[in-house]
Amino acid sequence: MPIFSRMLNTQALMFVYVATGIIMARAGILKHEGRSSFINLLLDITLPCMILDSFNVETSIDQLIAAGEIMVISTVCVIIAWVTGKVFWRNQPHERKAVLEFSTLFSNAGNAGMPIVASVFGTEGVFYASFYLLPVRILIWTVGLSLFVDEGDMRKRMMILLKTPSLVVVFVGIALMFAPFRLPSVLSAAIRNMGNMTGPLSMMIIGAALGESDIRAALDVDAFKLAAVRLAVQPLIFLFLFRWLGVQAILWQVAVTLTAMPAAANTEIIAEMYGKDYEFAARCVVVSTVVSLFSVPVLTLLF
Hints:
By secondary structure, this protein is an all-alpha fold. It is built from 13 helices and no strands.
């Protein structure tokens, strides 16, 4: 099945999960305070399980070399995104500028991107996506937070980074790859099954957030400009650049898919934590999330 068809089917499925989350929020089944527990379940359990499962396989030297390549690709993507953000948002007010630059730098690749990569590219795609996210996770809590906080908070940022389960589990997975054994079948099955919850759970959480939002308030011109940069301009730059450089197909396809995700879900949380315009950050997340349900399958027509 062509990538476009798989992506279209995947996004249609994700749309059903998002709609379920919206209904749950509107009906009062999933309240705001309960959503935080689901987010913790996603970030601390199901997403790390999905990542760990992708490492619990026999890995060839070629795959390890490709994993190194995709980390280089990831770093290049962030550098280009940093330049893009500086160019596009140079005239924005200070309170919005931090949000826009952060949203341009970092997508919702972990929460939304990983489940989509798993559905479209399988376990191999998740394996490469995990390595792609290694530099991103380091940069999001260093370069990313520097947009919001003072330099004196560097120690706090590094402690947050070191306690991130999905980052820690990558290093556990790398150790597992080189170990002379695989996990017992029962444990492997449990990890895989919990990891499979990530896609539906992440999309329902996003849907619940949308269900709590005032759609009319989300109609912010700058939020739509951010969505255009985040979902179209940057992915197209990366797509043509990496194809021109002759990068292995699955590597640039996974990278472009992850960069084509909406604004990072934690943008609003970080903005509120450090006194920036968190309401505008929420609009950026909402608008880019809705638009991405349609833009991502269209983008894969170029794959």
